[in-house]
Write a structure and sequence with these properties.
Strand content: 25-35%
Family: Belongs to the phosphoenolpyruvate carboxykinase (ATP) family.
Distance between the termini: 59 Å
Keywords: ATP-binding, Decarboxylase, Gluconeogenesis, Lyase, Nucleotide-binding
GO molecular function, one term: ATP binding
Protein name: phosphoenolpyruvate carboxykinase (ATP)
Mean pLDDT: 95
CATH class of the largest domain: Alpha Beta
Helix content: 10-25%
Shape: globular
Number of helices: 11
Pathway: Carbohydrate biosynthesis; gluconeogenesis
Low-confidence stretches: none
CATH superfamily of the largest domain: Phosphoenolpyruvate Carboxykinase, domain 1
Length: 455
């Protein structure tokens, strides 16, 4: 049985996926919350938020992510950073996953990656968990109902947490797998309930496709001055280094908190929502983000809460330091309705310095900016990846190496050209430690960083 609105020529059966149980197409938030509750996937929280835990996977699994090696990708993928999977192994994986899906209910969301209609990616996300459908509906951009009738996916993501991969049979590393096949226009995710794999898979696709159109894909947040999109700022940084927090400035218009493109027309958000870390979140320091944690359909991921009152504990990291909330952009009162900005006036590179050596802020020449962009010195923040339990100094090229399928110089040349053409001013901002290294010093106060940026 199928339920919901869908292009009648683009059902799953038309994509070779048949034999499933009930298939629910493009359910909206109330229906997805109801489905997730009835299936026992989580609990209802205060204000109608949805509370979930994700088992042993509470962060991304970058070592289990593969790109299928085909003639199309042979010379364009940065293979030293993106482990290859052979095409025949992928086809076996796909066949086995679809066979595993037989008789089970699935949830389908047809969504856009990219706020600029000229450069968007039409993505179909097929999820075993109803709350994953809710999550990705928040994080990507939602088409108006009428356009669903003609929606044709450019790429399809199939996410099946109950499927366990076989390394010997599927050419992967463990029971967990994220396999990207550009030629097949398919991404397969298995063996993990962590919702962030869905959004980062779309980001990886856009990071591969957009450079061919002279568009710079950026692991950054962005905002602009009220009524003045020309005054746009972008904040590069690894997960957990302050992109979401610093871009959610009540005195500026939020474009987006994590993934953007820089085209010849300006800046555009890839997403339609935010995925914010909630550890030590407070109403005083970050009122807008804090308020979303008790809004209807916000997904609360891996947070400890009181079973009776459902009150969240923002200080308890016993499940993970990578506790998060996912919500649509319009839950932030000063969010841009279009998610579009001008050419960045300021390019800010956030580094989480666990050694406490770098200054709170420094202006960079374009050459220095390229050095910091390509070297990407920062820290992996606790919990953002499996096995990371405390700040871990790292060099993550382009401030997003796990999501960069092409070689770093491709992105470096694009950014260098954009900065030169549009005269952006570049800054290095340390959101890590001051007064000593991790364990001795203290984390840079967010209010102090905001004051420096405003000045």
């Amino acid at each position: 049985m199928t339920t919901g609105r869908v292009n009648p020529k683009q059902r799953l059966e038309d994509q070779g996926i048949s034999g499933l149980g009930n298939v629910y197409y493009n359910l909206q938030e109330p229906q997805l919350v109801e489905a997730a509750l009835s299936r026992g996937e989580g609990q209802l929280g205060r204000g109608g938020a949805f509370l979930v835990t994700t088992g042993k996977h509470t962060g991304r699994s970058p070592k289990d992510k593969f790109v299928v090696r085909t003639p199309e990708t042979e010379d364009s993928i940065w293979w030293e950073n993106n482990p290859p999977m052979q095409p025949d192994a992928f086809q076996t994986l796909k066949q086995d996953m679809i066979a595993h899906m037989a008789g089970r209910d699935y949830f389908v969301q047809d969504l856009f990656g990219g706020a600029d209609p000229a450069h968007r990616l039409d993505v179909r996300v097929v999820t075993e968990l109803a709350w994953h459908g809710l999550f990705i509906r928040h994080l990507l951009r939602r088409p108006d109902p009428a356009s669903i009738d003609s929606f044709t996916p450019d790429f399809t993501i199939i996410n099946c947490p109950s499927f366990k991969a076989d390394p010997a049979r599927h050419g992967c590393r463990s029971e967990t797998v994220i396999a990207i096949n550009i030629a097949d226009r398919t991404i397969l995710i298995g063996g993990t309930e962590y919702a962030g794999e869905n959004k980062k898979s779309v980001f990886t696709l856009l990071n591969y496709l957009l450079p061919e159109k002279n568009i710079m894909p950026m692991h950054c947040s962005a905002n602009h001055a009220p009524g003045n999109p020309v005054d746009t700022a972008v904040f590069f940084g690894l997960s957990g280094t302050g992109k979401t927090t610093l871009s959610a400035d009540p005195k500026r218009v939020l474009i987006g908190d994590d993934e953007h493109g820089w085209s010849d027309r300006g800046t555009f958000n890839f997403e339609g929502g935010c995925y914010a870390k909630t550890i030590n979140l407070s109403a005083e320091a970050e009122p807008e983000i804090y308020a979303t944690t008790s809004r209807f359909a916000t997904v609360i991921e891996n947070m400890v809460y009181d079973e009776d009152t459902r009150e969240l504990d923002f200080d308890d990291d016993s499940l993970t330091a990578n506790m998060r909330c996912a919500y649509p952009l319009h839950y932030i009162s000063n969010a841009s309705a279009t998610a579009l900005g001008g050419h960045p006036k300021n390019v800010i590179m956030l580094t989480c310095d666990a050694f406490g050596v770098l200054p709170p802020i420094a202006r960079l020449t374009p050459a220095q900016a390229m050095y910091h962009f390509l070297s990407g010195f920062t820290s992996k923040v606790a919990g953002t990846e499996r096995g990371v339990t405390e700040p871990e100094p790292t060099f993550s090229t382009c401030f997003g190496a796990p999501f960069m399928p092409r070689r770093p110089e491709v992105y470096g040349e694009l950014l260098k050209g954009k900065i030169a053409k549009h005269g952006a001013t570049c800054w290095l901002v340390n959101t890590g430690w001051t007064g000593g290294a991790y364990g001795t010093g203290s984390r840079m106060p967010i209010k102090a960083t905001r004051a420096l940026l405003t000045a």
